[in-house]
Design brief:
It is a single chain. The protein is 22% helix and 10% strand. It is an alpha/beta fold. The strands form two sheets. It has a three-stranded parallel β-sheet with strand order 2-1-3. Helix 2 links the parallel strand 1 (30-33) and strand 2 (52-54). The radius of gyration is 22 Å and the shape is globular. 19% of the residues are buried.
């Protein structure tokens, strides 16, 4: 009777030296990064010579003809298309670009690759991509990914849990006025937002939404925020800019 030779993972020594062949690494890690320059700059932040796999599948949602435009501008210049987006944010395709359904399809191979790794995996990507991946690891319907809010300056860590599934934790890596933390119990960040919908951006401060538009005593009041998106933006992540009332 022949006995199969067991297949062993790479030895500890193979994990301990960086790509420069000299620098010792504190732990093994497989890094996957978008090909966008800002993603690569994030990967190179600490200059630790881990191997980095640049993957175009991790690039953000392609907005096609609307690339570079804010959602507020699109709502004003293309109201008919914007109404379609409001009605179906997952399957409404950007002209000449993608919809979230297309993005989900191109991320399938990424998920398979992540789950085949025997050590830690770090994914450096963009809001739209991370929304889809977070939905998968939270076991949330992927069609609801457009409303998932992501904390800024924070690493989301998913650890395999006993009995299946994943345990999520948040690890802040940079403290700044824009740093926020999402409520892991509700998953929709309602605890940090004045909106009545999870489809919001993080963080949102009460100062952006003044309770008093004016004052009878002549006191100065914060500028009014006027947005064509109203209180229910269909996609979380597009930047909200303030417009002062004249």
């Amino acid at each position: 009777m022949s006995q199969e030779t067991p297949v062993h993972p790479p030895t500890q020594d193979e994990y301990q030296v960086g790509t420069d062949g000299v620098t010792p690494l504190p732990f093994p890690c497989h890094i996957m990064s978008s090909t966008m320059p800002r993603a690569r700059q994030t990967v190179d932040w600490e200059n630790i010579p881990y191997p980095v796999e640049m993957m175009s599948n991790l690039n953000p949602l392609d907005k096609g003809d609307f690339t570079g435009q804010e959602l507020e501008d699109i709502a004003l210049t293309h109201p008919d298309w914007y109404n379609e987006l409001v009605a179906d944010p997952f399957y409404t395709r950007f002209p000449g670009g993608e919809c979230y359904g297309d993005l989900t399809s191109r991320l399938e191979s990424i998920v398979v690759d992540i789950e085949q790794q025997v050590g830690p995996v770090l994914v450096v990507s963009h809001v739209s991509v991370l929304q889809v991946l977070v939905a998968y690891f939270r076991n949330t319907p992927v069609e609801d990914c457009t409303g998932i809010a992501l904390p800024l300056n924070t690493v989301l860590k998913f650890t395999p849990a006993k009995g299946g599934g994943w345990q999520e934790s948040q690890h802040r890596i940079l403290t700044s006025p824009s740093t926020s933390e999402c409520d892991l119990q509700s998953y929709d960040c309602l605890s940090v937002s004045p909106y009545s919908t999870p489809m919001i951006r993080t963080p949102v401060t009460s100062q952006m939404f003044p309770a008093n538009a004016g004052s009878s005593k002549g006191e100065s009041s914060p500028p009014e925020v006027i947005s064509p998106l109203g209180d229910h933006p269909p996609i979380w992540g597009d930047h909200l800019y303030s417009r002062r009332s004249s």
